[in-house]
Hints:
Blueprint: H1 2-40, H2 47-53, E1 55-60, H3 77-89, E2 92-97, H4 101-109, E3 115-121, E4 131-132, E5 137-139, E6 141-148, E7 153-154, E8 166-170, H5 176-185, E9 191-195, H6 200-208, E10 214-218, H7 219-228, E11 232-237, E12 242-248, H8 253-266, H9 270-279
Parallel strand pairs: 1-2, 1-3, 8-9
Antiparallel strand pairs: 3-12, 4-12, 5-12, 6-7, 6-10, 6-11
Amino acid sequence: MLRQNLLCHTMKSGRKTYIIAGILFIGFILLAVLLRSAGDTTHVRSLDEIIESGKLHIVSENSSMGINIGEGQNSGFQYEILKIFADTLGVELKISTANDLALSIDLLNKGKYDLIARFIPTTTEWIDTVLFSIPLLTSRQMLVQRSFNKGKEIRINHQYELAGDSIYIQTNSPHKMRLTHLSKEIADTIYIVELENLTAEQLVALVAEGKIRNTICHEQLSRKLTKEYSNIDASIPVSLSQPYSWAVNKESTDLLEKLNGFLAAFIGSSDYWNLYRKYY
């Protein structure tokens, strides 16, 4: 009898231990979920908070057209415009670089950045995700390919000749949607190859070196780069002219209003055209 009671007590103790362990395990999982949710909590800073902090957090691509991070000194067409805008706010720029636009938009919407300062075509792809500034320029997307016989012979002469061909772009490039639409327009497959951690300028360099077949960049940049690489051609457009803008979080209406006021006054001014001629 005593032995039976001891066995029963042991079994009850074992079940109790399992129940406690189970409760603790579930509690641990819930705590982990709560902590993760707290870490994902977004806070989009207002314009007043930005000014009070003294810093404007921006993300751009690392290039001469975006922000060229140098030793002790930054440069770039968009950087110089940003610097003037930051000066009007009385803040300094806190700069991050990312070549993946989708990642930049995700982090913008999580409140890590206040502004995406890179040329984004204002298409329907992101119109419900971010707020676009007024356009900084209007441009077409151009096919960049190698030319042959000192530029006298071009391999692709018409868009429909891209059927079955490959075009290399940045991962989550703003040009991807247009290439997808073009593939439907010519009723054939255009193979889109996405390469990580590369800028449009680096992709053009790979075309010039013969390491990739084709890439895409906007027209102003393509004109600049054809002067640097004598063996590339960028004469074939793959889109109509479209506006290119910066982007802010959809909650950042006060920042957008301030930014648009600045851009409206700056774009077309002598300072703007001096910068444009300097980089293009």
